[in-house]
Amino acid sequence: MSVMEARIVHIGINRHWRDVYDYASRPENMPAWASGLASGLVQDGEDWVAQGALGSVRVRFAPRNDFGVIDHLVTMESGLQVNNALRVVANGDGAEVAFTLLKQPDMTDAQFDADSKWVLKDLTELKTLLET
C-alpha cells in the first residue's frame, strides 16, 4: 500500500488545552460534537459501538494520556478499519485541535473534500461547546 494523501484539519479553541482534552477524549461526550457518532456510543468491553450513517461501527480509543492524544481506530461492519489521529495541543493559553484525515484508496477528490468539511464542522461544534 502506498502512502495516502493526508489533510490536517484543525481549529483553535480559547480554552486551556487540558480542559479541551478532558472533554473531547471522553467517548460519552462525542455525540455532542462528533456528528458521525450522533446516535451515541455504547461501551462494549474496551471498545465503543455506535450506529451511524455507515451502519454499526466499533471504535477503540487510545488510553487517556498526558499528551493530548485521542487517536481512535474505527472498524466498519465491512471490516474496513480506519485509523483516526486526533490531537489536542497547547496553543498559547488555549488549545489547537488537529485531526489527520487520510484519503482512503476508494475515495474521490470530491468525497475527500466533503470529509474535510465534515471534520471542520465537527471541530467547530467542539469549539462552540467549549467556548460558551
What attributes does this structure have?
alpha+beta, Alpha-D-Glucose-1,6-Bisphosphate, Chain A, domain 4, seven-stranded antiparallel β-sheet, 2 helices
What's a concise summary of this model?
This protein has two helices and seven strands, in the order E-H-E-E-E-E-E-E-H. With 132 residues, the protein is an alpha+beta fold.
Report on this model:
With 132 residues, the protein is α+β, with helices and mostly antiparallel strands. It has a single domain (6-131), classed as 2-Layer Sandwich (Alpha-D-Glucose-1,6-Bisphosphate, Chain A, domain 4). The protein has helices at 17-24, 109-131; strands at residues 6-13, 41-44, 47-52, 55-61, 72-75, 81-91, 94-102. Strands 1-7-6-5-4-3-2 form a seven-stranded antiparallel β-sheet. Strand 6 (81-91) and strand 7 (94-102) form a beta hairpin. The termini are far apart.
